[in-house]
Structures are given as C-alpha cells and as structure tokens.
C-alpha cells in the first residue's frame, strides 16, 4: 500500500492520550510565530534548483533550513548564501569530528558563513568541544558576527547497544547519551541534537538550559518512513524540545506549505499546553 501523505492524514488525527486540550483546526494562514521559528525544514535535496524551489515556498513558513552533508558536498557554501539571500536562516548539520584544531577552524568558517546553528560530535571529547566553542566566541567578537548556536550530537540513532559494544563502549545508548550530554554542557556547548525519546532523560540530567533540536518527528497519521521511534510535533514540544527537524513529511507533501503550517499549528498546541 502506498504511504499516506501528511495531507491525507491531516483530518484523521486522533487525540493523543493524556492531552486535555482539543487539537486546533489546521490553519490556512501562516500563524503561530513562536512555533514557526522553531520548525526546521531538512533540505534533503541534491540540487540548487530544488533549494530555490523549497526556500521560496517555505521561507515564511519555517524558522530554519537544515543543510546536511549531501547538499553541502554537492553545492558548497553557495547553498548557504542562496538561502540567506532569500531571507532564510541556516542550520548547518555537518557533524564535525576531528582533532581539536581542525574542528575549531571549521567551526570558525561556519560562523563566518553566518549560519544560525551547526553540529559537532560530543564524542570528539572535551578538548575538541572546548576549542571549537572558544574559537567561535573569539572570531565572532573580533569580526562582530552573531555567534551561532553550537549543537553536540551524542549517540547516532542508527547505533544500538551492540554497535557501541563493538567500538568499546560498554554503556547502553541511553546512558551514553546522558554521559555525552553532560560532557558537552560542562564545556559550554549550547545544545544537543537528540531523538524524541531522549528529551526527558536529557532534561532530567542537564536541566532546561540546553537547546534541544529534535528530528524523528511525524504528524499523527502520516507515514513514519525509516524513522523508528517517533513523536508527533505536539508531543515533542510538550516533552521539552526547542526546535523540531522535519524533512519528508513537508518535502513530499502534495502541498508542502500547508504541511508546514499544520506542523506549526500542532507545535503551537504543544507549546501552549
Ligand atoms: O525526512 P525526515 O523528517 O525523516 O528528516 C529528518 C532529518 O533529520 C534528516 O535530514 C535526517 O538526516 C536528520 N536526522 C534524523 N535522525 C537523527 C539525526 C538526524 O533523522 N537521529
């Protein structure tokens, strides 16, 4: 059976357990500015033509555009300039992991590109994280740039207990996520990319200050694609997410703009609860 689209699913959403308020009607207009700023569209496309299309379509509907390895390797920094020129903000998701000097230098270049957020691996260790953070702070001060938010990646969701064991990590994924989250927080990293299931444990261990950017989100009733442990936008915001990353449910919708608006409406409901 063909997967159902977000739009097909939109009007068949059931009320999640534990919610006291009524799910709001999908909005036909762009609204909920506070929630909209927190929606990140994953620009998982392979051409500048598609970038132009989606950015023109969605610049007023989402807060940021995520540029990952595929698009950046294909198009380079030009893609960032294109998005900025069309009024979009960028989350650069290249997951830096190298010796401290190399990651610090790459982080400085990310700051100079004017991205709003970028990622590096917490497992690169405290020296790597600290040097990247210091280098970014100092270049932003010296060159009067807005400092980007540094986000640490903890344990990739593709790795299970056995994968960790193979590379010498005895802790299970959940314990390792919390360990790396604490480490990143200690050296002043601003936030983390985490799966929806990790939000509660990270908040318990690290408090409310870290910015949590959460992929693996699906509107209720839409296809899960290859995401295994998903939450709805409403549930993820209620659980303590600061930003949600959503790709295919918007990109592949018959009406991507309306799909983004529906997600924002659901996020706003989660924020208001
Ligand atoms: O299309 P979909 O909404 O699943 O896209 C999610 C985006 O978030 C993709 O760019 C994917 O690479 C990224 N991501 C993820 N799961 C993680 C980390 C990142 O899906 N654990």
Topology:
Layout: H1 6-10, H2 33-36, E1 39-42, H3 48-58, E2 64-67, H4 69-75, H5 78-85, E3 90-96, H6 100-113, E4 117-121, H7 126-142, E5 149-153, H8 161-166, H9 173-186, E6 191-193, H10 199-206, E7 211-214, H11 233-239, E8 243-246, H12 248-251, H13 256-272
Parallel strand pairs: 1-2, 1-8, 2-3, 3-4, 4-5, 5-6, 6-7, 7-8
Bound molecules: cytidine-5'-monophosphate (C5P).
The site of cytidine-5'-monophosphate has 16 residues, from strand 8 and helix 12.
Brief synopsis:
The chain is α/β, with parallel strands linked by helices and 273 residues long. It is built from 13 helices and eight strands. Helix 6 runs parallel beside helix 7 and helix 11 packs parallel to helix 13.
Question: How would you sum up this structure, described in words?
Answer:
- The chain has 273 residues and is α/β, with parallel strands linked by helices.
- The protein has one domain: Aldolase class I (TIM Barrel, Alpha-Beta Barrel), CATH 3.20.20.70.
- The protein is built from 13 helices and eight strands.
- An eight-stranded parallel barrel has the order 1-2-3-4-5-6-7-8, surrounded by six helices.
- Strand 3, helix 6 and strand 4 form a beta-alpha-beta unit.
- Helix 6 runs parallel beside helix 7, helix 9 crosses helix 10 and helix 11 packs parallel to helix 13.
- The two termini are 35 Å apart.
- Cytidine-5'-monophosphate binds next to strand 8 and helix 12.
- The site of cytidine-5'-monophosphate (C5P) has 16 residues, from strand 8 and helix 12.
